[in-house]
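Tokens as discussed.
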């Protein structure tokens, strides 16, 4: 069993797997829920996935520029930006102008993420990015399929928004000295929150996520809601990594644990919706 576990873990924590699955996870819930109302429209879905995927790559590129000096004239960066703008234009003209506008704002959030943190707007940045990734993308993935958004999706997405908030906060906590290039050499070990405060906040947020999930989901999904509990192993592993004082646990591993928890939660909720609609 141990070799199998190590193999699965190796695949789950592989950066290529994560870079593909993270954008997909944001769109699964809305897409699956829309199947209750309409047939699956492949082209809008794949284009929206392409848009989110490209912005995910651009976000990673911009994160690297926060650590080391990279040229924005890099050919791949320019190509992705052009494709990004073309996709925004497509959503504006072919689907709805509001969809294009929201895509534009989402891309703007990705592009200004680290700049706003450096300017001291960390909490605002966390809130906005969480709403867009956990909420807006869910609504857009539904809308491009069904051309409307049910009100139930708004409060069902609240746990998703909280999950993204937790992940984004964890990423900032882990990478704060690299993001905030204004820190002096004497402050390179500075974290966004005090370690004890961050740990308490993380535990409280995890408990809140599950509490709100059960409050919002049980009235509609009944026993199916307990599928959410399949995310607990990922939550436990996340706590073990983030609370560990061992220097051997790399920041990249901790960050991937955060991302995996997010993916697990989004997929679990998507499975709940899939069972509910079939």
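Sequence:
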């Amino acid at each position: 069993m141990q070799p199998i576990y190590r193999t699965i873990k190796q695949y789950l924590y592989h950066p290529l797997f994560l870079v593909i699955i993270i954008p997909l996870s944001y769109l699964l819930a809305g897409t699956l829920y829309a199947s209750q109302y309409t047939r699956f429209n492949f082209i809008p879905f794949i284009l929206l996935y392409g848009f989110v995927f490209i912005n995910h790559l651009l976000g990673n590129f911009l994160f690297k520029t926060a650590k080391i000096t990279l040229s924005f004239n890099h050919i791949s960066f320019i190509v992705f930006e052009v494709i990004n703008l073309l996709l925004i234009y497509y959503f504006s003209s072919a689907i709805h102008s509001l969809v294009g506008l929201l895509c534009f704002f989402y891309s703007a959030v990705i592009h200004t993420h680290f700049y706003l943190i450096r300017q001291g707007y960390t909490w605002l940045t966390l809130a906005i990015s969480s709403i867009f990734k956990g909420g807006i993308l869910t609504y857009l993935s539904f809308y491009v399929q069904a051309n409307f958004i049910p009100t139930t999706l708004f409060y069902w997405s609240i746990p998703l928004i909280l999950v993204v908030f937790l992940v984004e906060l964890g990423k900032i906590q882990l990478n704060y000295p690299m993001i905030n290039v204004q820190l002096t050499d004497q402050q390179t070990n500075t974290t966004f929150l005090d370690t004890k405060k961050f740990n308490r906040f993380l535990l409280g947020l995890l408990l809140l996520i599950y509490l709100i999930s059960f409050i919002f989901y049980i009235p509609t999904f009944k026993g199916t809601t307990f599928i959410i509990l399949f995310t607990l192993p990922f939550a436990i592993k996340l706590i073990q990594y983030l609370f560990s004082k061992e220097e051997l646990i790399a920041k990249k591993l901790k960050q991937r644990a955060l991302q995996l928890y997010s993916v697990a939660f989004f997929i679990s909720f998507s499975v709940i919706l899939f069972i509910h609609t079939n």
